[in-house]
Design a protein that fits this description.
The protein is an alpha/beta fold. It folds into 3 domains: about 220 residues, Nucleotidyltransferase, domain 5; about 140 residues, Nucleotidyltransferase, domain 5, CATH 3.30.420.40; about 120 residues, Alpha-Beta Plaits. Helices cover about 45% and strands about 25% of the residues. It contains 14 helices and 18 strands. The strands form 4 sheets. Strands 8-4-1-2-3-14 form a 6-stranded mixed beta sheet, sandwiched between helices. A 5-stranded mixed beta sheet has the order 11-10-9-12-13, with helices on both faces. A 4-stranded antiparallel beta sheet has the order 15-16-18-17, covered by helices on one side. Strand 6 and strand 7 form a beta hairpin. Helix 4 packs across helix 10. The two termini are about 120 Å apart.
């Protein structure tokens, strides 16, 4: 089932205000509320204040509850122009500039002072032309032609805002502003005019008449400054009454006098008013005929085949007969009630009395069902901008929500990351503290180990030192070249001057060496480090008289000692020969690579 909604249509006339509420349901329209009243403007009352007063009173009186409003303005205050566009036109922007230029030429106001719109019309037709063929014979050829036209409509800003501001203040949403004549045109085309016929629509209002011609898909529109007020003005001059009294006299006694041999009315008042009305309508007929000629001559239009009447001025008696007589065309009132259903709650007597003025509201309601033949909106720029902004607000709100959500997600994410990193830092700090404690424990154990190792190394050194003397003796014993050589003394050798008695090569100073035998046992025991050893011994000479063999043997020993540099650093020796025996005494001083410490 389709969605139900309601629409309020407001038709502003020069002397009347009509309001109708439609229920739109499943593609159908139902008239649920209707109200019409004659508007009397108070003395010195602005138009805007007069409209707002009557509009608010009718809202309460009729109980109109629809939130959306479509507004129709009187055509008498508008400017219209039908312009032909060049055959070769560009894009939409180019068309808009051409039409704006045409509008600026037609309207005596700045483009910033008006609300305007246009409708692009496409016109196609065929015509027969004579052309010569290849044989030189003339033959008739059908040629298709097409052209674009633009119907331009404009209204002064102040003539729109004086009504739209009041509707906005009432809390309603204004969705369109149109000319009442164009809404009539839409209602007529949809309900009464076929696509293949040309019809003329006459909206006779109080201040003027709007003539429209619907020719297939084309439209011609012209304002004629002759209407119901023209009749009132003539009555006022004839009888010397005010405008309000003249309107009442026209309503109660007025009709259009018939041409030819007709019986005069019994009332002189009615007879006079009928003649006045006929004179005014005759003038109107002259303007209508001239407009038809302009349409046909300048716009290559077709002749109308029927006439449809609308507007409060057309309600005068014998209006149909008058135009039928003058135009010699079928004339009837525009009746588009076949497009709608009427609710039982509607006052049908009031609706019938205002039938000629209710057609524009049906045309407005058609917009809510779909596209119409003519769709020109004069909604003020400020309202359009506000609606565009309102339409974008959900996207703004969604963007704001998305932005805030992103910020919240970012904050939450940053917080989560921060907490995660904080936990990692705390875990790492705990691991570091644990590692530091373990390192400290290891360092403590290492210190203890180093201490024990130092003690062990010291003890090992003592143990190694204990065997060092024996090792030295074994090394010396291993290099003794012959059993004819033996050692008698193996003892530390420290010069009498102590450590200061050595030269840079680690050898004792001679004077200090000479003092050796002078050391007492106490001095000898006080020595803490020995760098040199003193070896005493003998070599047996086989031949007592041979003085070289023992020396060679000693030299061989010395050379053998020098071949152990990892133990012995240097060696020196002295010998003495005992002349009474075959023994040679020797004394050897060996410098150790590593000193012996006590």
């Amino acid at each position: 089932m389709g969605k139900d909604n309601t629409i309020l249509t407001v038709d502003i006339g020069s002397r009347s205000l009509k309001m109708a509420e439609f229920l739109l349901q499943d593609g159908n329209m139902m008239l649920t509320k209707f109200l019409s009243r004659r508007v009397e403007q108070l003395e010195d009352e602005p138009v805007a204040a007069c409209f707002e007063r009557n509009y608010n009173e009718m809202l309460l009186e009729g109980g109109f509850s629809a939130k959306e409003v479509r507004l129709a303005l009187p055509s008498s205050n508008s400017f219209q122009r039908l312009s032909k566009l060049p055959a070769m036109i560009g894009n939409t922007a180019t068309i808009g500039k051409i039409i704006e230029f045409e509008a600026s030429q037609a309207v005596p106001y700045s483009m910033h002072e008006i609300e305007w719109g246009y409708q692009l019309l496409h016109h196609e037709w065929e015509e027969t032309v004579e052309e010569e063929n290849e044989n030189g014979e003339v033959e008739k050829v059908s040629v298709k032609n097409e052209e674009y036209e633009a119907l331009f409509v404009a209204v002064k800003n102040e003539d729109v805002t004086c009504y739209t501001d009041a509707i906005e203040r009432s809390g309603k949403k204004l969705i369109s502003v149109e000319l009442s004549a164009l809404t009539l045109f839409n209602a007529a085309v949809v309900s009464r005019i076929n696509e293949d016929e040309c019809a003329m629509i006459l909206e006779i209002g109080a201040k003027g008449t709007c003539l429209m011609i619907a020719d297939h898909r084309r439209i011609f529109m012209r304002n004629i400054p002759i209407g119901g007020d023209t009749v009132n003005a003539q009555i006022s001059r004839e009888f010397g009454v005010g405008d309000s009294e003249a309107e009442d006299m026209k309503r109660h006694h007025g009709f259009i006098a018939l041409g030819g041999a007709y019986e005069e009315p019994s009332s002189n008042l009615a007879s006079t008013i009928s003649k006045i009305a006929r004179n005014v309508m005759t003038r109107l007929h002259g303007e209508v005929s001239r407009s038809i000629n302009v349409w046909r001559a300048q716009h290559n239009g077709n002749a109308p085949t029927k006439v449809l009447l609308a507007g409060g001025g057309s309600a005068m008696q014998y209006t149909v007969e008058f135009f039928n007589e003058k135009l010699r065309l079928p004339v009837e009132y525009l009746n588009s009630f076949n497009l709608i259903n009427i609710a039982p709650t509607v006052n049908r007597d009031q609706l019938q009395a205002s039938a000629s003025m209710a057609q524009a509201m049906i045309g407005m309601a058609l917009h809510s069902l779909g596209s119409c033949p003519v769709d020109i909106s004069l909604l003020p720029r400020e309202i359009r901008k506000q609606y565009i902004l309102d339409a974008r607000k959900p996207y703004f709100y969604a963007s704001a929500v998305a932005l805030i959500s992103c910020l919240l997600i970012s904050v939450v994410g940053i917080g989560e990351v921060r907490n995660f990193e904080q936990q990692r830092v705390e875990k790492v700090e705990a691991d570091v503290k644990k590692a530091e404690a373990e390192v400290a424990s290891v360092n403590s154990f290492k210190g203890t180990l180093d201490s024990h190792k130092s003690n062990y190394d010291q003890a090992a050194k003592y143990l190694d030192a204990r065997n060092l003397i024996g090792s030295l003796m074994e090394n010396l014993q291993a290099v003794i070249p012959s059993d004819r050589m033996w050692l008698t003394a193996f003892e530390p050798y420290v010069p009498a001057g102590g450590a200061d008695s050595y030269n840079e090569m680690g050898e004792p100073v001679a004077a200090a060496a000479a003092e050796w035998k002078r050391l007492t046992p106490e001095q000898f025991n006080a020595i803490t480090e020995v760098k040199q050893l003193r070896l005493n011994g003998y070599v047996i000479r086989v031949d007592k008289l041979d003085k070289t063999s023992d020396r060679n043997l000693l030299i061989e020993f010395v050379e053998a000692v020098k071949k152990k540099p990892e133990v012995f650093e240097s060696i020196s020796y002295e010998t003495s020969v005992d002349g009474n025996s075959n023994l040679t005494y020797f004394e050897i001083i060996i410098t150790l690579k590593d000193a012996l410490k006590k």
